[in-house]
Design brief:
Layout: E1 2-3, E2 6-7, H1 30-41, H2 51-59, H3 74-84, H4 100-114, H5 119-130, H6 135-148, H7 160-163, H8 171-182, E3 187-190, H9 205-208, H10 211-223, H11 239-260, H12 309-325, E4 327-329, E5 335-337, H13 343-352, H14 360-363, H15 366-375, H16 402-420, H17 426-429, E6 434-442, E7 445-455, E8 471-480, E9 484-491, E10 497-507, H18 518-523, E11 526-535, E12 538-545, E13 552-553, H19 559-570, E14 586-587, E15 600-610, H20 611-614, H21 653-656, E16 661-675
Parallel strand pairs: 1-12, 3-8, 7-16, 13-14
Antiparallel strand pairs: 2-11, 4-5, 6-9, 7-8, 9-12, 10-11, 10-15, 15-16
Protein name: Hemocyanin
GO molecular function: oxidoreductase activity
Family: Belongs to the tyrosinase family. Hemocyanin subfamily.
Length: about 675
């Protein structure tokens, strides 16, 4: 019996395309780049604290030497003209990506940064515009540029909840932080979730309000922005399908957390029915007042200047019509067939909608418009001049329980399409000569809560004269004990074969204790892992640790850690930050749903499929430094996301007799444990 080396997706983004960039003049080290980005994002409402960057901000002339831009300075002329004409949003004002003018300004800066050919030009522009543009626009543009520019390939972005703590932290804790700074008393404040025990939704607030879950959601939207156009630099592979998949996962994971807490799965939202769940965010903009609240049982109203409810219904029916027909109509009036495995990608582009939508005039922008309409229900006619609601920022959207109801609504439209495709046959699913003999789990599947601390230094006003004091907050976050999957596989092909191992789990029963059918279960399946492995002839024993999951990423290092590691590496060491370069997956601590005291039953399945047939890129098993949802290069797995559980299963016997498939029941426990670290 041989123990195998598993070839995994390692969580880093693949190399960015080279867009004719010059080697940096003095070949700037990754540590120097990390140092620069740390300082550019620290204390964004105050002065830049690095003398070198501050010097650039004061004296740099973006238009002086246009040979440093790949577009001969076109983007920089545009932005400077608007700056000189005082057309840009002032500083000390809220920013929302879903506001067309504010988005336009942030993207003008992104356009300048993505055209910079060398690091010095990149960082000089960033410093220059940081002093002159709205802080929210600046942070957004810089984040997206660092994610997509080849110059910043190895830079780790600091956690957004430390850059802009107001979006993630309850007002009470922010006030406590201000008091601590004023009285120069260091403080650690315990943060709690919104609401009280009288609100059953409170039981799952640990999911929607988790700072890491918020970061995952906003990061995904930065990796795959709806406004992206390929002329910025490269094509984002399977963006529409990825939009479906990542939001499908938020929905099914949220339902699994609900079942863990004795709540029914969420119902979909609908435009003609009341929004049952109200929401009081308990968060405040740094500038712009409190985030608006919404009472229970509000009926949808048209939102002035954004959309009428009637328009959303029309757009929805056009999309569902296209699904029923099996094709969509592009701008020129041609049919595009969607009755195939790539149809979901086009549908995702249309529903979001992104710039990739083949016919935005006709199919509209259901998802983006819905976010604004739902976010504005507290002030639909602008009577009270309220700032945008939590749903109008990707950083904060999952805090509102109606986010998941909105996405359930869209997820059901995607399901309608997926269910219209022919089911996989036994022949298509069989991997000849490969048998999964046994599947088991090492260690009890057990979750617990633990306190997680993050800094609030950037929440408070700041001048160089008043020293910083340590101010932080700690908040309970879900985590799980380590476990591993044991998979025994026989390869009877007489030669080595490359395989893809796909692991999923779904809740065994609904909240009334009724077992889900295989077909209901598979749509609610959570993808736990996916990796490649070469099977030797004969029997193979695969051990895969929970910490190796390809769908998850570690917690983002704090500002403090990033500062320390960059400074240490400037002295010539290695910053040791490689594993944090992509933050696109869900936090590893959320790999398992919470479960409960009795042990929540899950169906755990593994499918071992043909790696050669699945591969979308050459040399898959050698070149695996590629995270699950990373936006660079081609997605390595040719199969649709969720394969082989992505299509309807009218007869579950098809799966139960597959030799390359194994299905067991497991229980996830939570014994009420809460670890305090202070």
């Amino acid at each position: 019996m041989k123990v195998l080396v598993v070839l995994a997706f390692v969580a880093t983004a693949a190399a960015r395309p080279n867009l004719g960039f010059q080697a940096d003049a003095a070949d700037v080290s990754d540590a120097q780049k990390q140092h620069d980005i740390n300082f550019l994002l620290h204390k964004i409402y105050g002065e830049i604290r690095d003398p070198n960057l501050k010097g650039k901000a004061d004296s740099f002339d973006p238009e002086a030497d246009l040979s440093h831009y790949s577009d001969s300075g076109e983007a920089v002329h545009k932005l400077i003209r608007d700056l000189k004409d005082h057309r840009l949003l002032e500083q000390n004002h809220w920013f929302s990506l879903l506001s067309p003018r504010q988005r336009h300004e942030a993207l003008m800066l992104f356009d300048v940064l993505i055209r910079c050919k060398d690091w010095d030009t990149f960082v000089s522009n960033a410093a220059y515009f940081r002093q002159r543009m709205n802080e929210g626009e600046f942070v957004y543009a810089l984040y997206v540029a660092v994610i997509h520019s080849p110059l910043a390939e190895h830079v780790v972005l600091p956690p957004l909840y430390e850059v802009a703590p107001h979006l993630f932290t309850n007002s009470e804790d922010i006030e406590a932080a201000y008091r601590a700074k004023q009285t120069q008393t260091p403080g650690k404040f315990q943060s709690s979730f919104t609401g009280t025990k009288k609100n059953p939704e409170q039981r799952v607030a640990y999911f929607g309000e988790d700072i890491g879950m918020n970061t995952h959601h906003v990061t995904w939207h930065m990796e795959f922005p709806f406004w992206w156009q390929d002329e910025y630099s490269h094509h984002l592979d399977r963006k529409g399908e990825s939009f479906f998949w990542v939001h499908h996962h938020l929905a099914v994971r949220f339902d699994a957390e609900r079942l863990s807490n004795y709540l029914d799965p969420v119902d979909e939202l609908h435009w003609e029915k009341p929004i049952v769940q109200g929401f009081a965010p308990h968060t405040t903009y740094k500038y712009g007042g409190q985030f608006p609240s919404r009472p229970d049982n509000v009926n949808f109203e048209d939102v002035d200047g954004v959309a009428r409810i009637r328009d959303l219904l029309i757009v929805e029916s056009r999309i569902r019509d296209a699904i029923a027909h099996g094709y969509i109509i592009d701008k020129q009036g041609n049919r595009i067939d969607i009755m195939n495995e790539r149809g979901i990608d086009i549908l995702g582009d249309i529903i979001e909608s992104s710039m990739y939508s083949p016919n935005v005039q006709y199919y509209g922008a259901l998802h983006n418009t819905a976010h604004i309409v739902l976010g504005r229900q507290a002030d639909p006619h602008g009577k009270y001049a309220l700032p945008p609601g939590v749903l109008e920022h990707f950083e904060t959207a999952t805090r509102d329980p109606s986010f998941f109801r909105l996405h359930k609504y869209m997820d059901n439209i995607f399901k309608e399409h997926k269910d219209s495709l022919p089911p996989y046959s036994k022949e298509e699913l069989t991997f000849t000569g490969v048998n999964v003999e046994n599947l088991s789990v090492d260690g009890e599947l057990e979750t617990f809560f633990e306190d997680y601390e993050y800094s609030l230094i950037n929440a408070v006003d700041d001048t160089e004269e008043i020293a910083d004091v340590e101010i932080s907050t700690y908040v309970p976050r879900l985590n799980h004990k380590d476990f591993a999957y044991n998979i025994e596989v026989t390869n009877n092909n007489g030669k080595e074969v490359l395989t893809t191992v796909r692991i999923f789990a779904w809740p065994h029963r609904d909240n009334n204790g009724i077992e889900y059918t295989f077909d209901e279960g598979r749509w609610n399946a959570i993808e736990l892992d996916k990796f490649w492995v070469k099977l030797s002839p004969g029997s193979n024993h695969i051990v895969r640790k929970s910490s190796e999951s390809a769908v998850t990423v570690p917690d983002v290092p704090s500002f403090d850690t990033l500062f320390k590691k960059a400074e240490a590496a400037l002295g010539g060491g290695d910053a040791g930050l490689t594993e944090f370069e992509s933050a696109t997956g869900i936090p590893n601590r959320f790999l398992l749903p919470k479960g409960n005291e009795q042990g929540l039953e899950f169906d755990l399945v593994v499918a071992v499929t043909d790696g050669e047939a699945d591969a979308a890129v050459e040399g898959l098993h050698d070149n695996t430094d590629f995270i699950h949802y990373g936006s660079h290069g081609k997605y390595p797995d040719n199969r649709p996301h969720g394969y082989p559980l992505d299509r309807k299963v009218p007869d579950d016997r098809v799966f139960e007799v597959l030799p390359n498939f194994k299905h067991i029941q497991v229980k996830v426990f939570n014994h009420g444990e809460h670890i305090h670290h202070h």
